[in-house]
Amino acid sequence: MTGAEPGLMPSQVLSANRPDCDFPLNNLPYGVFSDDRGPRCGVAIGDRILDLAACEAQGLLDAGGTFAAPRMNDFIARGPDAWAAARARLTALLSPDGPRDLPLVAMAGARLHLPIRVEGFTDFYASRHHAFNVGCLFRGPDNALPPQWDHMPIGYNGRASSVVVSGTPVHRPMGQVAGPAGPEWTASRRLDLELELGAIVGAATALGTRITVDQAEDMIFGHVLLNDWSARDIQAWEYQPLGPFQGKAFATTISPWIVTRAALEPFRRVGAARTVDPMPHLRDSRPGFHDLAMGWTLNGQVMARVNYAVMHWSQAQALAHHASSGCPMNVGDLLGSGTISGPTPDQTGALLEMTRNGQQPVTVNGQPRTFLQDGDEVGLFAHAQGAGYRVGFGPCTGRVMPALP
Amino acid sequence: MTGAEPGLMPSQVLSANRPDCDFPLNNLPYGVFSDDRGPRCGVAIGDRILDLAACEAQGLLDAGGTFAAPRMNDFIARGPDAWAAARARLTALLSPDGPRDLPLVAMAGARLHLPIRVEGFTDFYASRHHAFNVGCLFRGPDNALPPQWDHMPIGYNGRASSVVVSGTPVHRPMGQVAGPAGPEWTASRRLDLELELGAIVGAATALGTRITVDQAEDMIFGHVLLNDWSARDIQAWEYQPLGPFQGKAFATTISPWIVTRAALEPFRRVGAARTVDPMPHLRDSRPGFHDLAMGWTLNGQVMARVNYAVMHWSQAQALAHHASSGCPMNVGDLLGSGTISGPTPDQTGALLEMTRNGQQPVTVNGQPRTFLQDGDEVGLFAHAQGAGYRVGFGPCTGRVMPALP
């Protein structure tokens, strides 16, 4: 694939040709949808979804029947050659010269589902700004960054079972928190979001196998937006010495559309400058990041804007490190980038940083605010800007519901 | 179920009636095996395996066809009534009065497989002795136990993809470790084992649902032995602040036979005395532990013996805590107890504790030893002792292989 930015590729679906549309022909993100019929795979084009199961049934393309499944895993497991062939075929079908009788469904009338069966969820900590900001809050500026931070992409295993699709209500969790008279059992009082990019692993590795960063890059099928909801008070009480657990296990929201690595290839770029040369197993030969304008909203108000390329460790480096012990990776593994934050408060991907752990309230719709309240709706957004078009992710939203008794 | 210890229940399989046999009729542990035909479910009886797929095909019992699967998950998902019905039927079939033409396979000629598809792997830290011993090594006796230790079963998400069955070779992992001149990329020099009991979750909970400890108890299908292999030098460099990652991701070995909760019910007992009254969501109404004589061997030499009831937090309490944030639990989730250690070195479940982090070598086959060497074979064992019989787990072994280049 070339890094040249091709300009808008026009589609026969005219809504895809608008400069502010997240889903032009250049994008072709995959997802799972249902309408009067059950969940099956589709691709977003403008304000429509191309029914890939119907396309296969009509002989318009061939993916071995995998598009009829209610998850993308079976298609993804077919491998990079199949990904490239499907993209080329879909590009032809949806071009102005493509057939006119395509099985297109109005996105507005469809329900979007979790696009993959999440085999494993691992979250990293790859923004140096985020790691430093949070480290200062809890350990002070002299000990903000752990000594290994510049030498490896620090990560931890999350909980795959609580990964949900955009739009799923998120109930405030109950849990143990530190109190003045000892621990309390309470609804979290410090509910937060985390703006992240997720990588979906598209190839498996065997037990005992290591991979290079370049091999890891080729194993990534695509990306989603990811909100790693966090209960800071539960997390603070539980996380030493074995890491976050119930403070992050109640929900992780991802966007319904998987933007493929192929679609983002023209927007590849280098990340933050390094002060330490990576060890050999973490060295890469091409820019590991993408020029993505990202941010998040609270009840419709934009709270922060940041570029993904502010990150220090790429998702390919994270994947190579994940496999470095010989840990098997699977198709459908989801890797979170960790909170994406820049140096200033208006570039931070979490209220923990933005409000300095609640000490400096921000203003939301005219009211002072520290952490999330019941009824709040959080939205993540991201797109790569081309000349007269964009490759976008669509919405990744979640509304906070009261704790369940 | 009654807590009364029934004495040996004789079987028509005479090898099951020996007092030192791990698999009498009282036990009936489930597993997955293959011979000249492919993997299917079976139950261990003496030195034989009853082919449950064949039993179903012959109309000897009915489990909805789930015993023909290469994993136990489908049967387990049928629920507690199905578990009880199958156990009653198997008890009748294998009794001296049962049919003589049962499809029995010699265990010696069968290959044993991973008995479940591991949906999620979570490891806890439920031995107060282990937590204190390890805490003293890394943080000193004054800060050995984290402040929340007595208030919750501390746990972390492990990596499900590297759970392997007994007998699978374990390659020494490569990884980053701290060195005198900064971090090094090396084969681990401090490879260790962890003696644990695993619990297999047999019922699912929905997102946002909490459960009581008594409900959690009823959700546990059975138990396995679990060796949570650990590279202490990789772990020490990586684990702050987000917990263990590649230092434990390379392999976790479990025993091939799932000893059901029903089989262990007569051996139920209370655990270690508590100094802190658990919060309501962690309170139980019945003894949460079992009288299990456990231990581990290195190259055939018994290194430690300990009783499981030395533990502080039960696996039902761990499960209730795991779901306490609303985290969904799934059939096939595997929960590790954490290292099972008593107060003295000859009761410790890891070399880290036994050798005081390598400072006090132990003698193995006449040679001083700190951590595991290539070629070492580690074996875990456990059984509940009845009057003239035992309910055992069979072997859980793994041999250390050299690091892969």
Automatic annotation (TrEMBL), chains A, B:
Species assigned in the record: Paracoccus haeundaensis
EC number(s) per entry: 3.7.1.2
Domain of life: Bacteria
MF annotations from Gene Ontology: fumarylacetoacetase activity; metal ion binding
SUPFAM superfamilies: FAH (SSF56529), Fumarylacetoacetate hydrolase, FAH, N-terminal domain (SSF63433)
Catalytic-site annotation from UniProt: H130
Amino-acid positions noted as binding Mg(2+) in the UniProt annotation, renumbered to this chain: D228, K248, T252
UniProt keyword list: Calcium, Hydrolase, Magnesium, Metal-binding, Phenylalanine catabolism, Tyrosine catabolism
Domain Fumarylacetoacetase-like C-terminal as annotated: residue spans: 121-391
Encoding gene, per UniProt annotation: fahA
Pathway: Amino-acid degradation; L-phenylalanine degradation; acetoacetate and fumarate from L-phenylalanine: step 6/6
Cofactor needs: Mg(2+); Ca(2+)
Positions of substrate binding: Y125, R139, Q235, Y239, T339
Matches recorded under InterPro entries: Fumarylacetoacetase, Fumarylacetoacetase-like_C, Fumarylacetoacetase_C_sf, Fumarylacetoacetase_N, Fumarylacetoacetase_N_sf
Domain Fumarylacetoacetase N-terminal: 26-115
One Pfam family of this chain: FAA_hydrolase_N
Annotated protein name in UniProt: fumarylacetoacetase
UniProt GO BP: homogentisate catabolic process; L-phenylalanine catabolic process; L-tyrosine catabolic process
Top EC class for this record: hydrolase
Binding-site positions, Ca(2+): D123, E194, E196, D228
